[in-house]
Structures are given as structure tokens and as C-alpha cells.
């Protein structure tokens, strides 16, 4: 087992919550309701580490039953997040305050074969670049501009399944929680 690996932890990512006043809820309240699952909240945008053993279907039902709205619930094994966090795919990219490093997580295996090295728009100044695709994980960069949000939204169509996106710093924060989780 690696430094970030926990044999049974799950990571739950809620799509499009607590953003722009839409689908708002209090993650701390949800964690209290899920205390029996030893849930850790990371940030306000619907990121959770679930440390108690539970089947995916049960976990999805536990979250869905307690949320005050419907949303896509993406569940990963903690070891998947640990694996992607262990290797910085952005090491060759120069840090810039106007560029966000991101990981998009596909809700399930894509219907269409993912294409790497995508730049959107294809001409002119890029707003979004996909650097790599590994299984359900898409690694890329986007500019901190409103136009980039539309290109992120287009990833659903590109892959044929719902996608939820997190910054690389959020992924590494989740990995740190996993590293401090005792088996």
C-alpha cells in the first residue's frame, strides 16, 4: 500500500453544488448526518472522503437521500485519487495566476474514446487544454475567464458522460486526507 492508499476509503464529488448560489447546502451538516460513515469534508464545493466501509450503491443512496436537490454524485475509490495525486502531471507547466490546473472526473467509463491533446477553441487563444486522459480522469488547464466555463461544460459532450471538475489543489488536499486516514 502506498503513502496515500487506504483500502476502503471512497471519495465523493458532487457536481455543480455551492456555486453561484445554485444547489446550495452546508457540507458540515451533511457530514454530521453521515457521522456513521466517518466522512471528512474538503472545502465547500462538495468534496468528501468517506472512511467507513460501504458499498458504492449504498453510499450513493446515503448522499442522495440527504441532499436537498438532485445532482450528479461521482464516487471514486480513495486509492484512485491517491494514485493520480502521486504523480504531478502538471510539472512541465509553468505556474501562472491566470491558469487553473484541473482534473475532471468522468462519472463512468466514457462512451467515446477520450482524445488527448485537445485545445479549445481549436483556433485563436486557447481557453481549455486537455493534457492527458487516464481512465476516468482528464487532466488539463483552463484560463480564469468566464468563457472557459463553457468549454468545461462541453466536456460532457466530448466524453459522452457527465463530468465533474476539481482544481489540482483540491485533488492534492483530498490525497492528504487519505494519507492521514488509518486503515
Structural notes for this entry:
With 183 residues, the protein is of the alpha+beta class. The protein folds into two domains: 10-84 and 172-179, Alpha-Beta Plaits (2-Layer Sandwich), CATH 3.30.70; 87-167, Alpha-Beta Plaits (2-Layer Sandwich), CATH 3.30.70. Helices cover 28% and strands 26% of the residues. It contains six helices and nine strands, in the order E-H-E-E-H-E-H-E-E-E-E-H-H-E-H. It has helices at 27-33, 56-66, 78-85, 146-153, 155-159, 168-179; strands at residues 10-14, 39-41, 47-50, 73-77, 99-106, 118-120, 128-134, 137-143, 163-167. The protein has a five-stranded antiparallel β-sheet with strand order 6-7-8-5-9. Strands 2-3-1-4 form a four-stranded antiparallel β-sheet, with helices on both faces. A hairpin with a 5-residue loop joins strand 2 and strand 3. Helix 3 (78-85) packs across helix 6. The radius of gyration is 16 Å and the shape is globular. The chain starts with 9 loop residues before the first strand and ends with a helix. The model is unreliable at 1-6 (pLDDT under 50).
In short:
The chain is built from 6 helices and 9 strands, in the order E-H-E-E-H-E-H-E-E-E-E-H-H-E-H. It is α+β, with helices and mostly antiparallel strands and 183 residues long.
Topology at a glance:
Blueprint lengths: L9 E5 L12 H7 L5 E3 L5 E4 L5 H11 L6 E5 H8 L13 E8 L11 E3 L7 E7 L2 E7 L2 H8 L1 H5 L3 E5 H12 L4
Antiparallel strand pairs: 1-3, 1-4, 2-3, 5-8, 5-9, 6-7, 7-8
Radius of gyration: 16 Å
Q: Give the rounded overall mean pLDDT.
A: 88
Q: What is the CATH class of the largest domain? A: Alpha Beta
What percentage of residues falls in helices of 4 or more residues? 25-40%
Spans of 5+ residues with little confidence (pLDDT < 50)? Answer: 1-6
The helix/strand order is EHEEHEHEEEEHHEH
CATH architecture of the largest domain: 2-Layer Sandwich
Helix count from the secondary structure assignment: 6
Amino acid at each position: 500500500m502506498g503513502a496515500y492508499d487506504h483500502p476502503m476509503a471512497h471519495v465523493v464529488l458532487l457536481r455543480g453544488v455551492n456555486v453561484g448560489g445554485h444547489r446550495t447546502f452546508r457540507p458540515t451538516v451533511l457530514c454530521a448526518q453521515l457521522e456513521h460513515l466517518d466522512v471528512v469534508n474538503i472545502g465547500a464545493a462538495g468534496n468528501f472522503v468517506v472512511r467507513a466501509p460501504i458499498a458504492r450503491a449504498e453510499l450513493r443512496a446515503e448522499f442522495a437521500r440527504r441532499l436537498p436537490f438532485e445532482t450528479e454524485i461521482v464516487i471514486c475509490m480513495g486509492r484512485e485519487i491517491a494514485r493520480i495525486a502521486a504523480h504531478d502531471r502538471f510539472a512541465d507547466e509553468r505556474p501562472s495566476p491566470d491558469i487553473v490546473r484541473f482534473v475532471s472526473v468522468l462519472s463512468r467509463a466514457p462512451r467515446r474514446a477520450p482524445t488527448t491533446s485537445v485545445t479549445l477553441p481549436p483556433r485563436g487563444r486557447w481557453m481549455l487544454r486537455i493534457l492527458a486522459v487516464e481512465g476516468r480522469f482528464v487532466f488539463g488547464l483552463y484560463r480564469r475567464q468566464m468563457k472557459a466555463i463553457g468549454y468545461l461544460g462541453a466536456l460532457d459532450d466530448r466524453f459522452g458522460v457527465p463530468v465533474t471538475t476539481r482544481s489540482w489543489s483540491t485533488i492534492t488536499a483530498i490525497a492528504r486526507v487519505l494519507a492521514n486516514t488509518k486503515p
